[in-house]
Amino acid sequence: MRKHIFSATAFLLFLALGPRCQAQGGSIAQFIRPAQPLTVVTPSDPRFDEEVAVYFNGIEGAEYAAIRPYLVLLVNDNPVGARGYAVTWRFTHPDGSTADHTEFYITTRLNFRPGFSRALPPGAARLVSPFFNLSAKQWNVNANLRATFLPGYVKRLEGYGGRGSTVSAHVDGVAYVDDTFNGKNRTMILQRYLCAVNAEHDEALLVYDDLKAGKNGGQILAELKQAERNGHDARRKYLPAIYVRARADTARQLLGYVGPKKGISRLIKAVTFLANKTPPAGRMTFMAPWYSPDYTYQPNHP
């Protein structure tokens, strides 16, 4: 049975030695190399409706007008793809009080596929709200989606901020596939993205090594289910907990690669690629000490 660890020592090492620690595609210092921001257009911009219409054909009418205050148009005008970004909405109520809501959009290799990916390849556009993230491609090629999507969200969004509230939004940060980043990172989107890609690699490598060691499909599935359950314990906001939750999410996705017809053949193919073709190939990332088969989660750990 696999359990997991929050290592205070590893956490302190990450803070002290982070720029020298190996992360996805290179060191943390490499990853923080500055990049250009996404193009962000909000409803307060006079160009908003015109810009939305450029990418989302025929998006108009009463439903669009009702949810318009909550929308943000994101366009990647850069030559490299964006795989992780955070959008924060601020609701200002009539009494002057405010409330923030942040959504994190992280796309790793396992969910880089239609219907799951929230990535922004070069030239791509997405329309996001607190409840959905819609690609221009999805909208333009799917007539059924165009007919049903907006009405399904009107009531939900209208009541979200409270009557009389005003809404503003901004992108807190964006991580690109060439190991660059732009933004203030107040939401720790950079660290969250790194945890996600490293956790995906580490969980896949563990499964790959178990397969090489001769474990059968039943044993592999049992360990993946245990890894998925481990994430339920990791409720804190510190980086080790974020990493453990990301490991659990990876385990859940890998379980989806197992089917009644092909058994674990798709799982073997996925973990073989992730273990050997994503950096650091064939070895665990520096975050791996935060997760150990010999330690049980303790609530007082970071």
Q: What's the gist of this structure?
A:
With 302 residues, the chain is α+β, with helices and mostly antiparallel strands. It has helices spanning 8-17, 28-31, 48-55, 61-67, 136-141, 143-158, 189-212, 217-233, 239-255, 265-277; strands at 22-23, 26-27, 33-34, 39-41, 72-75, 82-92, 98-106, 125-128, 133-135, 166-176, 180-183.
Describe the structure in your own words:
The protein folds into 2 domains: 8-30 and 186-290, no CATH class; 36-177, no CATH class. It has 10 helices and 11 strands. A hairpin with a 3-residue loop joins strand 10 and strand 11. The chain has a 5-stranded mixed β-sheet. It has 302 residues and is α+β, with helices and mostly antiparallel strands. Helix 4 packs across helix 6, helix 7 (189-212) packs across helix 9 (239-255) and helix 7 crosses helix 10.
Which helices and strands occur, and which strands form pairs?
Blueprint: H1 8-17, E1 22-23, E2 26-27, H2 28-31, E3 33-34, E4 39-41, H3 48-55, H4 61-67, E5 72-75, E6 82-92, E7 98-106, E8 125-128, E9 133-135, H5 136-141, H6 143-158, E10 166-176, E11 180-183, H7 189-212, H8 217-233, H9 239-255, H10 265-277
Parallel strand pairs: 3-11
Antiparallel strand pairs: 1-2, 4-5, 5-8, 6-7, 6-10, 8-9, 10-11
Count of separate DSSP helical elements: 10
- Helical residue percent? 40-55%
Which residue ranges are poorly predicted, with pLDDT under 50 across at least 5 consecutive positions?
3-27, 293-297
Write the element-wise H/E pattern from the N-terminal end onward: HEEHEEHHEEEEEHHEEHHHH
What is the average of the pLDDT values?
A: 83
**What is the tally of beta strands?**
11
Secondary-structure class: alpha+beta
Distance between the termini: 23 Å
Sheet having the most strands: 5 strands, mixed
Hey, roughly how much beta strand do the residues contain? 15-25%
Radius of gyration: 21 Å
What is the approximate shape? Answer: globular
Placed side by side, the strands forming the largest sheet appear as 3-11-10-6-7
Overall number of structural domains: 2
* Oligomeric status: single chain
